[in-house]
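Section: Multi-chain targets

For targets with more than one molecule, the full set of components is provided together so that the structure can be written out for the assembly as a whole rather than chain by chain. Components appear in the order listed by the source. The example entry contains three components.
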Amino acid sequence: MLLIHCPYCEEARPELEFRNGGEAHIARSTSIADESDEAFEAFFFIRTNPKGLVYERWRHIHGCGRFFNAVRDSVTDKFLHVYKAGEAKVEPSALMANLPEHGAYANVPAAELNAKTPARKRATKDGEA
Amino acid sequence: MAEAATTAARRGMLDHRSDVINGVSLVPAAPAYRMSLRARPDDLVALGERLGLALPTRPKTSASAGERHALWLGPDEWLVLDLGGRDPMQDLAGLQVLHSAVDVSHRNTAVLVTGEKAADVINAGCPQDLSLQAFPVGACSRTVLGKIEIVLLRTGEDAFRVECWRSFAEYAFSYLADAARGV
Amino acid sequence: MTAANFRLSGQGRLGSARPVGFSFDGKAYKGVEGDTLASALLANGVHLVGRSFKYHRPRGFLSAGPEEPNALVGIHRDAARRAPNVRATVQELYDGLTAVSQNRWPSLERDVGAVNDLASPFFSAGFYYKTFMWPKDAWARLYEPRIREAAGLGVAPHLPDPDTYAQRFAHCDVLVVGGGAAGLAAALAAAESGQRVILCDEQPELGGALHFENGAVIDGQDGWAWSQSAAAALRARDNVRVLTRTTAFGYYAQNMVGLVERITDHLADPEPTAPRERLWQVRAKKVILATGAIERHMVFADNDRPGIMLASAARTYLNHFGVAVGREIGVFTANDSAYPAAIDLKKAGINIAAIVDLRDNPSGPLVEEARSLGIEINHGRTVVRTGGRLRVTSMTIQPKTGGTERTIPIDALLMSSGWTPSVHLFSQSRGRVAYDEASRRFLPGTYAQDCASVGACNGAEGLAATLAEGYAAGEKALKELGFTAKASRAKVEKAETWGGGMLGAVPGAGPEKIVKAFVDFQNDVTAKDIRLAVREGMRSIEHVKRFTTNGMATDQGKTSNMHGLAIAAEVLDKPIPEIGLTTFRAPYTPVTFGAIVNHAKGELFDPTRRTPFHGWEEAQGAVFEDVGQWKRAWYYPRKGEDMHAAVNRECKTVRTSAGMFDASTLGKIEVVGPDAAKFMELLYTNPWAKLEAGRCRYGIMLREDGFIYDDGVVGRLSDDRFHVTTTTGGAPRVMHHMEDYLQTEFPHLDVWLTSITEQWAVIAVQGPKSREIIEPLVEGIDISDAAMPHMSVREGTICGVPTRLFRMSFTGERGFEINVPADHGRAVWEAVWEEARKHGACPYGTEAMHVLRAEKGYIIVGQDTDGTVTPGDAGLDWAVGKKKTDFVGIRGLKRPDLVAPGRRQLVGLKTVDPKVVLEEGAQIVADPKQPIPMKMIGFVTSSYWSENCGRSIALGLVEGGFERMGETLYVPMADTTIAVEVCGQVFFDEKGERLHG
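Its structure, encoded as tokens over all components, is:
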């Protein structure tokens, strides 16, 4: 169960209180009736679904009830940023800069799985800790 | 709430249900006035004056004045409870300030959970941190209990008010009772 | 020590514990309180406890803990409480415990299935994949049923589980998993400044490896005694929760760890209301993993006979339970840590027949001590086979380079090939393990979550390092949380180390040998199987695992994974890290379904929602149907009536007098604010701006794609206040949909939405007499036709309580819907009923409601629409505001495929034979004589017998339906074809005159 920071409640709450609302930043045209078929297709049917950073909407439906936006890494499931509806989108480059090191899955290729040296110092002998 | 002889009688969803299990008491709350209030920040003072309390603006907090309580549910949403028989809808009648006030007195009902293990009982189905640090007396939140939505208000170190929609009240009571048997 | 008593006086920690009686396979035994089933059976000299999964080989105890792959038994309390596959090494003994062995017939000693062992050359790895492929149809007919019969381990009870299970969401600052020395130290340090600490351990007592390591001295105390006083100190703190008998089985996102606490399984007579287990979902700011290490067995021929076990297990049985696992014991090892087992046993007076050490020149204090005790040490030698059928009786040893064999009689054989750090939870946390070449172990490498590993699971090889890591991790966690308090550190004065060892098969079980050297005991996988898998082309360890099933049993390869990996690496001639490691998945040990389900069973499986009138309906004998979570009165049978008769009567009564219907479940939303009408204009197809206060309108809501999403009657209470109704099932999603648009697309509008579904109980009074019925009860509202025409709404009082009174109809009759505050609903209903019965009216249920509305051609969203129907398709074009420039769905309605000819349209269908009632969902074709598969041009959406029309009626979606009026179409059924005539949607009172009286 994820822990999601709600920008309105100003604290992290359990995923059970939230509902995902699909991709964010897909604005409905103010003159939607006049949209071309192509523009409407892009608006209503086409979603990006990238591996990596996803911009998505969440609703704190069993909390404050507000919709807000979040940026989540679909590889690690980690939230990098949450912001209120209407606030500007933060570009991926700005978020990637302070991205923590990715965690691993045990099913990554064997060569990648096994770091040459353990990432942090360990005590392996008695009394060395 | 006194009612005229001609008035249709009131029947609550949890009449006749109450229990004490493992030191935790589960009691249906008495009927109360409830109002769902929606408003923008600029109008809170005017609304608060009419209601007789300052509407809380911090998440997860409530404000009380006598038998009246205003629970912050969202940035523009409060649940106003009046346990003393004063209808908050009446207090706001005619007020020319942008807001929405909707009477939900009968929509909700509540179970009062008290006892040393009250928080443990609620935590059987509510995923929030109910320690006194994270959820002090007076804290309130809309959240979940098992498969239903509730509004939780901590009324004392060992006392909570669990508000839910009336048709979920039996589920809520049974869940809390089952949880109390298991603490 | 008598013939059958292996309990040694003066050994172990159970002292003069109370004797406890139990039975195994029907035979009575005695144990003592504090025993596990395993230790108690061993005390009685019983080693044979099970038959293996595939070959039905006799098996005993490999371990003394949760990693046990062999000793799986059934524990029976009563007919309904029969837990299969319980690890005897974990099950605590209680008075009257009844255990049975598994996977054997007719008895454990004489098991017919053991022919599988003789036939084992045919059951090689991938046997099932290769063998049961031909003939193709034999799989479903013959092979699968037989295999299913023979497969599986243990027997599930046939009765429902009578136990209850509990759940708890918990939060803490630091969660410490594992209560051995490392975990105790971490918890002591973390608890120092009063932060919330949870320490869990799967055993009944904390102490971990100190259960068996008996030479340790910490702060001048015996190691075990130190662990118990540390545990007591932790328990005494308010800020620490110590959970024993509690397994951390899964490590999930953002430091959520799933624990299962076993509450009653160890009790002879648990309180009937006590839950059997509790699921904990712990959210921790910091997690410290102190999960220890698991000893590996040696992979040699016939290493699975009862009596052959891990050296540490024998030490646990001796040093904790006071039980000797044999009297003439052999030891086979490749590292130092089997020596203390031999030394402890020897000192307890048990004869050690010989230590066989694969190493050429073992040395060091432990080796010296063993020697000085007179134990024979055979170095550079290997065990090439063992003897004995139901219990090991001998081991045959040989120099590892070959040469003379020597057979040594034994009654137990202890083995150790080293220790595998338990990185299961670390790996589940998505941390990346790193292979440490020097020690040939996978250790925690890169962390993905806020956790730390300490002690043996982190590669520490001695008690001092273990404690130091524990304290340091606890202090570090506190510091990162913003606290600086430091607990005083206990000092290790004497302890053992446990490094070294080997991986893979021993010499003598080598590549060319066709011997059963088991790698995975639970799934009966041998070294040969793994070599075969590689020879047959499996390269990835994931493939080898699936082909051989190595590590795929419920023990998840705790003892076997590393051996399997090493053998595969050896055959592939690649270093281990290049082969990779299989995925560690939750649960670490099996978790009962009961714990996962916990409270959500019986009435708590799903909420059952009842309206305020439910009790009255029940008293009237209503039959209820489930509509979502709601119980709705379906029909009200009178004496002698079946459903049909009741519904016919209800339908007739409504149209001749009146009926009362519980409409409380309909969703209701109050839309309030100066921009309420603007918002309604955007969310519904209809125009709202000009709807006067006090009037109602039927509204249709679309999704953006142009398809009908919901519908309902909307009343305008005042300029800035609408009372919106939705379908019963649609209420939550419509509210969500409206909030979505309001918050994210139209946030500039001054309007708010509040669900009032449950604020108002709704009594629909429908029929020609409806006005006369309610008239005496209503105050302050003129309900005459002139003052309150069809589709209007008024506020006033009824029976002295406030009401929102709607004049509206879902039956085509004059009708009212009385909204009253829910708690008053029952009393108002009863008052209305008193009036209604004077006019010969009746209550009617949802079935009659459905028939009556179908007679009028009113649609039900979700029944006559399926998410691909536009207002035009449903004949509701009139409800779409033609002059509007925007509403949700306006653009969707112009999509090419939504305006193309030939769309399915909702029409009436009359069977040529009026007595025939169509089946809902039946397909419609134009030409019934066409070859199969026929071209389907539509289907029946609603179909009923209409007593009012004296015939069957139906609605259906038919391609180009509006152009087919009068056409005959066909509904092919399994045994007949039904001819139907296409007609308009309205079957009764086509002009709608009855609405107005």
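Confidence is low (pLDDT under 50) at residues 1-5 of chain B.
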